[in-house]
Amino acid sequence: MKQVIAVILFGFMMPIVASTQDSGLGNWILLFGNKKINQKVNWHHEVQYRNYNAIGDLEQLLLRTGIGVNVTDNTNALLGYGFIRSENYISDEDKVTINEHRIFQQIITKQSVGVLRLQHRYRFEQRFVEDDFKLRFRYFLGLAFPLWSNPDDVDEFYLSAYNELFINSKQSVFDRNRLYGGLGYKLNKRLRFEIGYMNQFLSNGNRDQLNLVCFFSW
Predict the structure, then answer these.
(1) Nearest Cα residue to 32 out of 95, 97, 75, 80
(2) What is the per-residue pLDDT for 9?
(3) Measured distance CA(17)–CA(30) in Å, rounded
(4) Which residues contact 67 (CB under 8 A, 6 or more apart)?
(5) Helix, strand or coil, per DSSP, at residue 3
(6) Count of CB atoms within 10 A of residue 194's CB?
(7) pLDDT of residue 23
(8) Under a CB-based contact definition with an 8 Å cutoff, are residues 53 and 89 in contact?
(9) Alpha helix (H) ranges present in the chain?
(10) From the first residue on, what is the mean pLDDT of each consecutive set of 10 residues in the chain (218 residues)?
(11) Using a CB cutoff of 8 Å and minimum separation of 24, what contacts does 55-61 make?
(12) Comparing C-alpha atoms, which of 143, 138, 136, 147 is closest to residue 180?
C-alpha cells in the first residue's frame, strides 16, 4: 500500500511539471542522500537539476557532497564540496556557461515544538567562480508539520516550508532569499518525497520554481 501511495503521489507531480512547459515557471529536480557511517559520522550527497522551464532548458546543475559529524543528538557539523555548472542567458537565445567549485562548512540543528519540527542550517561558502573568489553566508529555517502519522513515524503526509537568506561578503550584500511551501510524504524511515513551490527573490527581481524533491538515507 505504501508503494502504491508513493506512485500515485509522483503520478500527481508529473502532469504539473508538464503543464509548466510553456510558462515562465521553472523546475528543480532535487535528490538528497545521506549515508550513516557510524553513530557519529555521516556522508551527505545531493544532485540538483535546475531548469528555466519544465525540463530541457538547463539553468544549473549542482553536485554537492560532504562528511558530517554529530556534535550532539540534534546538531550536525559538516565540511563539504560542491561543483556547480550554470548556463546563464546573455540574450534571448544565447547562453554563457560558468563553472564554480565551492567549499562549504555548515551546522544543522533540529528541534521540536509540539508536533512542529524545526531545522536551522548555518552555512558558510568559499566560492571559486571561474577566476573570481567569493564568500557567502546562508541561513535556512525549515518547518515540517505532520498532517497525520503512525506511531512508528512512517506512512506520513506533512506540510513543509522554509525560508533561506543569502548574504554576500562584498559588493551587493543581499544575494537572494528563497521562500518555499510544499506537501511531503514520508514512505518510511529511509525515503520521503516532496512537491512544492518556491519563490526566489533576487536583487533585480524574482523567479518562481516548482520543486520535486526526494530524500533517502541508508
Answers:
(1) 80
(2) 44
(3) 14
(4) 41, 42, 43, 44, 78, 79, 80
(5) helix
(6) 22
(7) 46
(8) no
(9) 2-19
(10) 44 44 75 96 98 90 98 97 96 93 98 95 98 97 89 84 96 93 93 96 90 95
(11) 55/17, 55/21, 55/27, 55/29, 58/87, 59/26, 59/86, 59/87, 60/84, 60/85, 60/86, 60/87, 61/85
(12) 143
Distance CA 8, CA 164 (A): 30
d(Cα 13, Cα 70) in Å, to the nearest integer? 34
What's domain 2-217's architecture?
A: Beta Barrel (2.40)
Task: Quote the CA–CA distance of 156 and 144 in Å, as a whole number.
Answer: 11
Q: Which residues pair with 155 in a beta bridge?
A: none
- Count of beta carbons in the 10 Å neighbourhood of residue 197: 14
Domain locations along the chain: 2-217
What pLDDT was estimated at residue 4? 42
**156 membership: H or E segment, kind and range:** strand 156-168
Looking at residue 131, its pLDDT comes to 92
pLDDT of the residue at 12? 44
Q: Give the other-Cβ count within 10 Å of 56's Cβ.
A: 9
Single-letter residue type at 27 = N
Determine contact, residues 167/176, Cβ cutoff 8 Å.
no
Asked if 106 and 80 touch (Cβ cutoff 8 Å), the reply is: yes
Q: How far is CA 61 from the centre of its chain?
A: 13
Do residues 175 and 203 touch, judged by C-beta distance below 8 A? Answer: yes
Report the pLDDT value the prediction gives residue 5, as an integer from 0 to 100: 43
